[in-house]
Structure formats: structure tokens, C-alpha cells
Amino acid sequence: MMAMLLAAGRGERMRPLTDHTPKPLLMAGGKPLIVWHIENLVRAGIRELVINHAHLGAQIEETLGDGGRFGASIRYSPERPAALETAGGIAHALHLLGDEVFAVVNGDIWCDYDFAQLPQRAAALQTGADMAHLVLVKNPPHNPNGDFPLHEGRLLPTSDRRLTTNSSKLTFSGIGLYKPELFAHLDRNAAAPLAPLLRAQIALGKVSGEYHSGLWVDVGTPQRLAELDRQICSAQLT
Known about the structure:
The chain is α/β, with parallel strands linked by helices. The chain has helices spanning 33-43, 57-64, 85-92, 94-97, 118-127, 195-203, 222-237, and strands at residues 2-7, 27-28, 31-32, 48-53, 73-78, 102-106, 109-111, 132-137, 148-151, 154-155, 169-178, 207-212, 216-218. The chain has a single domain, classed as Spore Coat Polysaccharide Biosynthesis Protein SpsA, Chain A (Alpha-Beta Complex), CATH 3.90.550.10.
């Protein structure tokens, strides 16, 4: 299977760090954020990768090259003159991703999710009626209300009768599996967010999900990056 790493964001909240370095190349635990993903995907047997980029994208290509030194094969999807948001970026790269279910991973997160689970889940998605499968995590302090309700492996609209008054939303991790037809109707040169597409499919009952209880960090500020670096370095020394 193939995977796409999203690396086109400007990283405004990470300034001034991102003024001269694209966010996915910021260092944590001795290596760029995006390299953690590449190595983990390759370890899971997922070696065919597509990376989009916009802000300082040339640095990403120069740093990662063709992926050979990681045991991967990397192709790039430049977005000019500006980033196309998540769904737009995927649509723009769709011709590189093939006709089967593919994985998408945000390049600016850090997560210990086991990517080795993805091929089996992708195979199930490929033969079923669902359009997407999302990995959800515990709500972080900066997103206390979460994104989507999860009930028995299904993402549900907030109005669904199966949800109790105590049901709460979880946060989308930025790790997901998608059928290419979910994006086929989009203009490949126009910006488009992912959330409306997902909510439309959730309303149709066509999105499955799972809860990941391990470590997950949305590296959205210099403070979170510094804390992640401390966590990784501490774990490596113990």
C-alpha cells in the first residue's frame, strides 16, 4: 500500500522556528518530525510514499531525497503558489497515489501508533462500503471538545441516537486511510479542507475508526516541540 505524508503547512504558530525551516523538518529526539514517520512506515512494510510541500518545500526534497537511505521510495507533490489544505493537497497528489486505499499521515505530529496495523485495515476498507478509517486519540488540552464521536468502531454524527448523554468526542490524530474516490470530485488545483468531506461520509455511515491510547502530540507550538523533545530523549536514555 501507499502512504502520503502531509508537509505543506506554513506552521504560523511555530514561528520564528518555521521562518527558515519547514515544520516537518523541525527536530525532536535527534531527527526531523517527518523522518520518524518515514522510518516507522518503512518498518511496517509501507515503502511507497508521497509527500506534498509548499512552504520551503525545496528543503524537504533536499533533506529526504528519493527516500533510498530510509529504505523508501519518495515522490513529491509541490503545491504552488500556496498550500491547498488537507483535502486539496490529497486531491492534487491523487494521480501519484494509485487506485487503492492509501494512508495519510500529518507530517507535524508525533505518535507511537503501530503502522503495521494499516495494511490489514486498508484491505478491509478496500472491499467494504466505507470510504475512510480514522485513528482517534484522547483530547489534548488545546482541543478539549474533540472532533468526532466514536461508538463500537464507527464514527457517528453528534445527533446519532446511539450516543448517550455521557458520550464525548475524540480528537482526530491526523492518521487515516482513504479510498481515492473520496477526493476524485475535487478540483486538484483548489484548496479544500478535509473535515467537511469526513462529516458528509460520517452522516452516510461510511467511516470507521479506532482509538489509540498511546502517545500522540500535535506539534503546534514551540513549547510542545520542546516538551516532545524532552519526552523522546528521556525515553531513549532509560
